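Memo to structure team: turn this sequence into structure tokens by end of day. - J.P.
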Amino acid sequence: MNLSRFLNLLPALIFAPLMTGIINRVKAVFAGRRGPPLLQPYHDLWRLLRKGAVYSTTTTWIFRVGPMVLLSTVVMALTLVPFGKSPAVWQFPCDFIMLVYLLALGRFFMVSAALDTGSSFEGMGASREVFFAMLAEPALLLGFVALSQSTGLLSLGEIYAGIDVTTWMNYAPALVLLAVAFFIILLAENSRIPVDDPNTHLELTMIHEVIVLDHSGPDFAFIQYGAALKLWLFALLIVNLFVTPATGPAWNTLATLGGVAGIAMLVGVVESVIARLQLLRVPQLLMAAAVLALLAKLLLR
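Reply from structure team:
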């Protein structure tokens, strides 16, 4: 394996928190407010890393390792996703299944950490998190299968490298459906409106935020940073569909970074113009993503 492929991780590790800053600024513009600084997520992470962590006497080692496992699994998942048309760090047949399993492993440990607190609120949030993930993961896998069918390849890096202008000319409707499905999954997996509100403080309506209520200090910094990397990962899954074969590394980098920033702005727009759905409506939204992915697969036959 070429060690230079690891350089493709640097933009994610450096700029992922900036996506949250872009989302917050877009929402502030829509609300007519000045809003927080663009680099506020970096200041928040640094502040949390300098604090101490507080642990309940009822928690065990599971509560402490949850944030670290979450961050580790997201970083490992990022190594399987190409950066634009640049190859991924690891490429092997059906690696997209490993990607889904890695994200599920991180979720499993965070849910276990929430249950380890013995809090009824966190147990409620853990139940919702697992239920919605159960609906989002099949839609994501269907999307990957459709992408594999469009190129006849089995590795994410090879699949995205094989999507070019000719592919768009032949399968444009299917690829658009996949992009919409991936965007819905992005909103669900990253606890964004209309699925969840990352800024809510009402436990009864929380989904993801309620399972991290008892984390503090560096542990919470790991969770926040892992969430930023996860948002970057799902943004790449969409942007890589639209980045045409690069004429050079500079164009590939600029096009991909611009696309990720565009996804962040789109998330900010969606959160500004759409209200949060009722909890009973969220499964319908995720089923819609699965239906879109299935339609795309049928169009690619």
